[in-house]
Request: fold
Amino acid sequence: MPKVVIDPVTRIEGHLRVTCQVEDGKVVDAWNHALMFRGFEIFMKDRDPRDAWQFAQRICGVCPTPHAHASTLATEHAMGYQAVPDNARIVRNMFEATHVGYDHILWFYHLNAFDYVNVPDVLNATPSGPALQGVQDQVKRVVDSGQLGPFAGHWWDHPEYRLPPELNLELTAHYLEAIKIQQIANDAQAFIGGRFPMVMSYIPGGMQERLEIEEILYYRHQMTLVKEFVDTVMLQDLLAIAPFHLDLAEQGAGVGNYLSWGLFDVESQVPEDRVLPRGFITGGNVGNVQQADLDQVKLFTANSYYDDQAGAGQHPLEVDPTPQFTELPPLDGEQLPQGKYDWTKAARYGDQNLPMEVGPLADILVAYGAGRPAVVDLVNSTLEAVGAAGKPEVLLSNLGRIAARVLRQKVNVDFALQWADELLDNYSKGDETVYEWRDVPESGEGNGGWNAPRGALAHYMRIENGRIGRYAAVPPTNWNLSPRDDQGVRGPLEQALIGVPVVDTEKPLEILRTVHTFDP
Amino acid sequence: MQVEESVVPGVSRRDFLKYCSWVAGMIGLGVGGTPRVASAIESIAKRPSVVYGSFQACTGCAIQLLQNREPGVANLILKTISLDYQDNVMAAAGDAAEEVWRQVTGQEGFFFVIEGSIPMGIPGAMTIHGRTAQEIILEAVPNAAGIIAYGSCAAYGNIQASNPNPTGAVGVQEFLAGELGADAPAVINLPRCPGHGDDIVVVLMSVLLTGKLPALDPKGRPLFLYGQTIHDSCFRRGHFEAGEFVEQFGDEHTKDDWCLYKVGCKGPYTYAPCGKALWNGNVSWCVHNAPCQGCAEQGFWDDLTPFYEQPRGGEFAWKVAPVETIGAVVGGATVLGLGAYAVAQNRRMKAAERSPSDAEPKRGGDV
Reply:
């Protein structure tokens, strides 16, 4: 039975390997291996709690802002804040709007598109106008130069590349345009936050500075441009690709449990009220959204490179973060992973230790199940457009994961301008407060849950003697790319890979596609 | 209308010269240097090969490079350089990607841009295709025409190396010096967290233009970029001189752009060109919205924290003492400010006194 390994998995954040066992042209078993460890929970210990968010946002340079946000929420919780000034709530939503704006575009075009868009095939297209002719000429010059750069060495001859040359050309043009659009979103983030990545202006208790009018107007301007691109290009591109790949709806179902900590606070600052609300779903039962609790999260390390003497299933703050690297599973040969095989700890939820899928699909399903009108309408119209009206279950798949990321972007840009209006409204009422001072307490414990673009993200902090006594982060990777837990239950990606067809084990494009649907 | 094309296919002569003028300005030649830059670029028949290796890192540096506006990411990748390996954007994966790596690093003359630190204590803390960062870098380095440590992780180990440095992380220069001793090639450090994408473009242009590495400060940073403090170029500087300080976030004076020194600004101790080139298409920089955290300085996570208090401790302790002494004796906020400034100036002089290194690139002839 052939073993298929992809290492490195490229077009992601970080370093990842997947190992699959393939039988009769299909994956029958799978393991994912995160291949990097840095030790945040160790070097954050004994720091000033107010500095935590600056450390935490370095966990992921692709999604630093949600890390900053979740970490700040955890610190505030531990410091005894019940809420932050309304202006801070709004400005944080603005940061997230720019961040989602850039991140989903980056994923759709720059990380994911090459799995479907055949760049060399662009040369076979008949351009419909001078702009596309220009793009074709550009690709031709690169190919003719023999210096293929980022396009070199890929499996472009794979039979699974199904799009016609003209669509490949158009999507290549959008790939180039999207570089500028993600910059437009990030410029707004930099303008209100100093720079991106690693914005500067969060602080436990609010934000460091009140936004000036010109900053708000600049944000409005940039997000209007992003919205225009999402409405007229990105959504259309999804609908253009989907008909060629409807079989993706039958692949990658995964574990069927979905968790969302919530995204975009409204005035109440209650997570269940968020635009994309907090909640979880089990067994694919979209109609039954249950209340989610950050303290119901447990981490398992039997198959992870950690020395957790306390044993199975601890609260994140109780897990010993001391690394214990053993060895990497062999790349070659028939031997499958045994013992510890992953730097990721396995996150599980509740008494039943359920693996949970997180990410845009989870966010959208929970919001859909909770009956949020903006999401319900959007999902229904999308299902109709792909010929699956009234069948939300087709979303529990690779196709659903791809579509949900675009729909989540649509929700984001539709709300983006509202945040600016709410802030201006507060200013006009004379409310310009952005920050409330509090001393760091001697002791305290807190958590913060938020949804990064790639999924539910939780941070946990315990304050001891006025310093960080324990810190823990449970990013989406701990859920989606969890290894098997102590009971041997696969993580969501490992489960989603089961049944994925592999036409050519030397060129496992379908496996790569499935991995990318999780935006790892 | 017929637009005159430049030597770069698809780029008008006008845009090309605009770009050359920007490069000339950034590398310190002034506008008068534009023709020199133009002729240097025009003489390049083959786009220079750039191999971007990512190790113990968060990918933030790569994302920052994607924000580049001059010459723009698409122009950069398709027209200016040949980005022969970059794992965040390249199409190939798995064995195919590994094959690309072996091909491009097997040929002499590429520029090796490195993101991320090297975990010496736990080599298994970062692997690609079953090989450790140490193995991969040591194998590639002999063929590199120049080595750029992009971002504070590659330069100094950065956050991974902060106390107690759980993985024994180090920067590229320290790693190579430990492995190769006197034979270690020169490394250009472009710190900051994240690294600034424009730094790479500017340094590559500088090397292509002059045929040698730029003069470096004692921390391995190009002096033409990292010769000034944040404080030197800060728009709040007037308030600093006037002794006008924000005392708490959100207070009435944050609106007036008063100085952020007392809420933790490390600008006087931080050598970086942020104020010159700004960030993200020149729209802003950190001190517009927050105190500088000193991310271009080695050890800032330990020596310049807490971030929201006046600097103290570590390597920077000697600077703080005289400041507070002067402040206590004279009792004036302005004097307190001036003390910090004098200390920073002193440091700057020291950096300049140590003569800039003028190392030749290993294989300058290939470029």
Q: What stands out?
A: DSSP finds 15 helices and nine strands in chain B.
